[in-house]
Amino acid sequence: MDIREIFILSFQALKERKIRSLLTIVMVMAGTSLLVAVNGVGAGFTEFFNKQFSNLAPNILFVTSGQEQGSSTVGSTSGGGGSASPKITLNAAVINRIESLPFIDNVIPSYQSQVLMKASGEEKSNAALSIDPNNLFVIAPTLELQSGSQIKQNDPSAIIIADNIANPPGEDNPFVTLGETIELEYSFIDDTTGEQDTLSKNFLVTGIMEPTGNPTIDGAAVINLEAGDALFQKAGKYDSLFVVASSTELVDVVEEEIKKLYGNDIGVTTVKAILKTIEQFTGGITSFLLSIAIISLVVGAVGIITTLYTSVVERIREIGTLKAIGAQSSNILTMFVLEALIIGMLGASMGLLGGIGGGYALSQATPRNEGDPPLVPLFFISDMVTVWLISVVLSVIAGLLPAWKASKVSPIEALRPKT
Amino acid sequence: MAVSSAPILRVEQIYKRYDSSAGEISILKNINFTVSKGEFVSIVGPSGSGKSTLLNIIGTLDRPSEGDIFIDGVDAFSLDDHDLAYLRNSAIGFIFQSYNLINRASVLKNIEIPCIIAGVAKNERLERALKIMGLLGIEDKGSFKPFNLSGGQQQRVAIARALMNNPSIILADEPTGNLDTKTGNEVFNLLKMLSNKYDRTVVMVTHNPELAEKTDRIIHLIDGEIERDEYINTKDI
C-alpha cells in the first residue's frame, strides 16, 4: 500500500477531529517548549558565569579568616565573642608566613567594608575595597581605567571608583566625576559604649574603572590600605588576602600548603572552586528543570496514547472495513503510527519556536542585579535537533501501542452491527 | 441448467461452533455448496439461522471450526493472515448493509481504496474508478464526501469499491437493508445487471424474499443447516 496514501488518510483523520488533535499537539508542544527553554536558559547561565569569572585571574586564591565567617564584609568583628568570630587574625605575621610558602609570588592584603557614599547631594550604600591600588591589576588583569584616571598609590585621600558607581545605570546624571570629592561614612558599634557611631572621611576621585565583569571590582570603591585601616579601624587586621600563585597549575598546591599551616581555621577559595560550585548549582537547577520538562514530555506522550486509543475505538468500523477489503495489519499499524508521527512532528516543531520564546521570557524573569548584563539564553542547533528528535521519537513510541491495538482488531468484531 | 463452468466458490463441510457459558453453540452445521462463475446466489433464512456467519466465513473474515472454503481453487484457510488479506483484496468484493464508507475521504478515494491497497498505479486506478462510476451512475459524485450522498448513492459507491479489483466473487450482506423499497430495488438491479451483463458472481444475504426470488438460486438456511438449495432462474452463461 502506497505510504503517501496512508499518510493522506492519517492526516485526514487528524483533521476530522481537529480540536482533539490540536490539543494533543499542544501537549507535545508544551513538553518540547519547556525542554528547549530550560536547555537554552541553562546554557545561557553557564555562559553568563563563565564570562563573569573568566575575568578573575585564575592564579589567585582568596584567603579569609576561617570558614565560618567566609568572605563577608562585616567590619569590626575583632574582640567580639560568639561563634562567628574568626579563629585567625590576618595580620602581617600571617602574611609573612604565607609568603614564605613555595610557589607564591605575592600576598595582597585588603580590607572590605560597607560604607555610605555621599556626593552631589546624594547618598549611596556601597562596598569599599581597601587595597594597594597597583594590585588591582593583579586581581583583575583585564582592568582598564577611564582616561584621565590616575593611580595614587600612597595618597590616602585618593579613591578609584567603579563606573557603575560613578555613572549609575538607568540614571541621567553621574553620581560623581573625576576630580570631585566624595565622602565615605563608616558606621560601627563602639565596643566600650555599645552605641552606634560613625566615622567620615573625604576622598578625591582620581580614577574611574571600566567594567571588568569581576563583581568584586565592578561594584567597588577602592582606597589604599592606610585609608582603609584608619576609616574601618582595623589596626592591621585584614579582612582577606589575595594570594598570587606563580602559575595557575600550582593553585591547588598552594591551597594545600596554606591548609597545612592553618587547617580549617583559615578559609581558602580558588576561582576554580567558585566556578565548580556555580557549575554544580546551575547544573542542579538545570537538571531539576529538565526532569520537569521530561515529565511534561511524557505527559504529552500519554496524551497521544489517549487520543489515538479513542480514535481506534471510534474508527473501529473503518479499521474493520479496511481489513475486509484487504488491508494488511501492517497498513493499519502504519496509519496510526503516522498519526502519532504527524502529531509529534507538528508538536515538536511548534515546541522549538515556543521554547525559544519561552527561553527569552524565562531569562527576562530571572532576578539579577541592576546594571548586570541581562541573561541571554543560548540555543544550539544540535540541542534543538536532539530535543526535536526526542519529542518525535517519544510520540511515535506512544503511538505504537494504540496502533498495534488497531492492527489487531478482528474485522468480524469491528463490523458486527451495533446493537 | 446452464451453470456448468468450474466453481468460483466451493464450500466444504463448514461447521462453526462457539463456546458459551450455556455450553457449545452450533451456528453452522455441515454446509456444502459450490457457486459457479456468473451465478447470483441469495442466502435466506430467519434471524439467527447463521446467514451472516456463513457469509463472513466465505469472505474469510471469520474462520470456521471445521471445513474448507475454496475461492478460485485456493484453499483460503490454509493461508496465513497476510495472504488471506491479499486474497480478500484481490478475489473478494464486500458490500455491507451500512455501506461502511470512510467519510473523511472523497467518494473517488473510497472507491480507489482496494486498488490503493493492491498498489495499482494512480492513472490505472483512476481509469478503473471512472469506468465503474459511469456504470453505476455516480460518475459526477467523485469529489463528494460520502455523507453528502443519499443512502442509495452511498451503496452504489460501496458497490463500485467492491468492483475495483475485478474480484472473482462479490459478497453482499443485506445490501438493501438500510434502503427504502424503491432505492433498494434500484441497488438490487445494479447487482443483477452486474451478474447478467458482466458475468459477475454474487452471493447475497437477504431478508427480503422478493429480492431473493429474482436471483438465480436461493439457499435456505435454518438453524445453521441448508434446508433447501433451489435454482430458480437459470440463465445462459
Describe the structure.
The complex is a heterodimer of chains A (419) and B (237). Chain A is α+β, with helices and mostly antiparallel strands and 419 residues long. Chain A has 2 domains: 3-53 and 277-415, no CATH class; 60-246, no CATH class. Chain A has helices spanning 3-16, 18-54, 92-99, 136-139, 163-166, 215-218, 225-232, 251-262, 271-314, 316-324, 329-365, 381-407, 411-415; strands at residues 60-64, 104-119, 122-130, 158-162, 181-189, 196-209, 220-223, 240-245, 267-270. In chain A, β5 and β6 (196-209) form a beta hairpin. Residues 68-83 of chain A have low confidence and may be disordered. The mean pLDDT of chain B is 92. In chain B, α3 (107-118) crosses α4 (122-136), α3 packs parallel to α5 (151-163) and α4 (122-136) crosses α5 (151-163). Chain B starts with 6 loop residues before the first strand and ends in a 6-residue tail after the last strand. Chain B is built from 7 helices and 10 strands. Chain B is α/β, with parallel strands linked by helices and 237 residues long. Chain B has a single domain, classed as Rossmann fold (3-Layer(aba) Sandwich). In chain B, 35% of the residues lie in helices and 28% in strands. The A-B interface holds A 1-2, 5, 9, 12-13, 15-16, 317-318, 320-329, 331, 411-412, 415, 417 and B 56, 59, 61-62, 81-82, 85-90, 92-94, 96-98, 100, 102-105, 113-114, 116-119, 161-162, 165.
